[in-house]
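Audit log entry. Action: structure prediction of a protein-small molecule complex. Ligand: fe (ii) ion. The ligand was supplied as SMILES and no pocket hint was given, so placement is left entirely to the predictor. Protonation state taken as written. Sequence taken verbatim from the request; no trimming, no tag removal. Recorded inputs:
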Amino acid sequence: MSALGNAAFRLAHLSDLHLPMANMALPWRDVFSKRLFSLISWQIRRRHIHRPEILDLLVADLLAHRPDHIAVTGDVTNLSLADEFDRSFAWLERLGKPQSVTLIPGNHDRLVALAPDEGPSRWTRWMQGDDGSADFPFVRVRGAVVLVGVNTAVPTRLFQASGRAGAGQIARLKVKLAELGRHGLFRVVLIHHPVGKGLAPDRKALDDRAGICAAIAEAGAELVLHGHNHTAEFYAVDGPAGPIPVIGVPAASTIATAKDARPGKINHAARWHLIEIARTSAGWHTAVTARRLTQSGAFETCGRFAFDAPQAAFGIAS
Ligand SMILES: [Fe+2]
Ligand SMILES: [Fe+2]
């Protein structure tokens, strides 16, 4: 039973899986594309950092906590190759049924321009709304919680990892958030790129971050979840009635090193968050448990915090 009681909705959040690419080759047409540079980066550095055995440990720990729903905020792949999408299906199916797993794409899932049937649209089972629509933002209601999936994955130039939602999607987001708010639901916005100002350098940032934030500030949301930076982040953006909490989770497949364990250093080790959401007489109470990989290979709780909405008591509780 949840510490918040049976009524709490238990949402697990993970991101940036960067699934392994062993034995994958580039199609000839990509030899002169951005994919070549990303493949070199993978071979030299990233394949030693993002490990399949770490991801297996994380998934085992996550599933042992029996969440009601799992949110994956993008960067499942590395080069958005057809073979990577093929392999991702089995991995996503291990997490749970598509109605219990919600996915949005990250920049690595659309590294280059792709035909409609080649890219993240292959994940429609995990990325469609309750109405069957695959348009973004899509809406999935699960009890009193609603997941609103935003797509910021667009192909970019070499050495760029920026994102863009686009004016049309932002306008639809504002309308949907306002409507869901009128229904009294706990609105969770899922977005790959951070929405906090200055949290990513320009070449990695969300180009229309201000537009997304303006939509959320006007229409409201109870929580925003993202990945992309591969670091843990907890901050707030403006909402119509006060600050709205935003949580960024580190990558799900990253090794734990001695450097990570040093005080004052950013810890990049694999992590996932258990977010327990409960309705209260005053609104909502949300408790977050951060589970992190240690050098021994075990996952441990590395932090707990809680906040209420309306956000009068917003802050770290413990
Ligand atoms: Fe990533
Ligand atoms: Fe990313």
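Audit: result stored. Residues 75, 106-108, 161, 192, 228 surround fe (ii) ion (ligand 2) (CB under 6 Å). The first strand starts at residue 9 and ends at 14.
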